Structures are given as C-alpha cells and as structure tokens.
Sequence to fold (295 residues):
Amino acid sequence: MLDFRMETFFQVCHFMNFTKAAEVLNITQPAVSQHIRYLENYYETKLLRQEGKKLKLTEAGKMLYKVASTMIHDEANLKKQILNLSNALEELRFGATKTVGEVVMPEIISRYLKDYPDSHIYMKVTNTTELLKCLEDGKLDFALVEGYFKKSDYDCLHYSTEKYVAVCCPDYPFKKKIERIEDLFEERLLAREPGSGTREVLERYLEAKNCSVDNFSRMAEIGSLHAIKELAKSGCGIAFLYEVAVKEEIAKGELMNIDIPDFNVCHDFNFIWRKGSVYSDIYHTLFQRFLDTKQ
Fold:
C-alpha cells in the first residue's frame, strides 16, 4: 500500500495548492503541511518553494512527483487487477495521437478484441501535449504518439518511422512553381492545432530554415485529421501530413504529393509509458502484439 504522505504530496503537486489538496483528501491543511515536512525531512531536501503567491516545485520535487505519479497509477492498476482475478477481466486505458488513433489503431484494436473478446478498452485520441499530461496524471497506462517528448522522462519503444509529405488536390492552382518550401508560403496552410505532433514536425523543419507557419499568407487551424483531408481534397489549401494518413486518398487520385525538392522528412511513432513502471513487462508484451498486427 502506498504511503499516505506520498498521496498528499501528489495532490499538492496536482493542484499546487495546500487547501485544495486538503479538501480532496478530506484532511486538514495543517495535516497536509505536516506530511510535506515529513517527506522533506526524509529526503533531506526542499520539495516545494513559494514564489510570491504561487507554489512551485523544486528540481527534487519535480523528480519525486514523477515517481509518485507512477507509483500511484501502478498501485491503482494493481488493485484493479487483484479485484478482477476471479473473472480475468482485462482493461486497457491508453492514448493515441490523432493520426495514430484514426489510421493505425482501428486494425490493432479489432485484432485485440477478437483475441480478447471480454476486454474493456478505453482509447483517448488527442494531441501529444494532452496525452503526455494524461500519462503524468496517471489517467492513461501508455500511449502511441507521433509527437516529440522528453525521452528521459518516459520508457519508449519504436513502433515505426513514417514519411511526412505535403499534399493538395490534383488540380490545385499554385501561385508559383514549387522549387522550395518557401514557394508554398503564398498558399493557405491547412494545419493541425498547436500541441499536435503532426504540426510540430512542420514547425521544427521550418525553424531550421529560419521560418515559421506564420510565413504562410493564410492559415486554417483544424483539430480534425479527416476535416483537413476533406478541405485539401476540395482545393481549400495545402496540408502537411504523414503519408500513411493519406495513402488511400493518393491511391484514389483525390490528393497528390507536392514535389518539394530537398523536402525529405520522416518521423518516428513511439509507444511510451511512465519511466520505471512495474508494468513494463506487460507493456512490452502489448507492444509486440501491436507490431504483429502491423506485419
């Protein structure tokens, strides 16, 4: 059973407020302070500091918070598994970025449910930033992401490397001949929302060329992969997406690759979970099942 003082510390970190943590835990605020002091004495370092009216984590506090998040999630998961031993109920709670969730996961989930028909599955599909937060908060077990993340904070396995392409409708009326990416700046960019892994790949590429998405004359930010493809097919602009997400539309002639000299961009899809989780072996097994489905 997890030390109750670690639970207190976790709630303080979650709210960055002693009063709210006390309310959630149904204890007094002095008790919260006492638990934090105990942990600081035990680890012989300050975990929290006051900056004006705001509470901030020290570097040691940030480290302990990550560990506490993993411990609390693992204990909750373990309790659930113990309670379900009698009927062998399986439950997966995971996340996927939008390209992965809409393009990659349906076949994987279909195969998994055929193999384990009694399984309960919850998949959250959102951008990388939100998924990382859900992992840190213990709301998800693992995630398959296309975006950037700090590898020192997570255990990860490489799922695939995907080509990143620019697309438009076959009869798109370009303003000028496309000889470099800057020649596309006069077109409308159909882009995912900030925080999306798909968008971040483009942003990092442009940043390396001392440019940004703001260089495009017009931009439409769309939170739906399907909507972006439909708008591109209707000639409303150009889009940068993973080739795996548009291969069907390209095969049907509804979209085409925009040939940009020297634009050779690929990016990894990664299977990630909280570093140090006691369920690492289980995640390795699930990952292998995902790979088997892909093959």
In short: The longest strand covers residues 154-168. The chain has a mean pLDDT of 88. The longest helix spans residues 59-83.
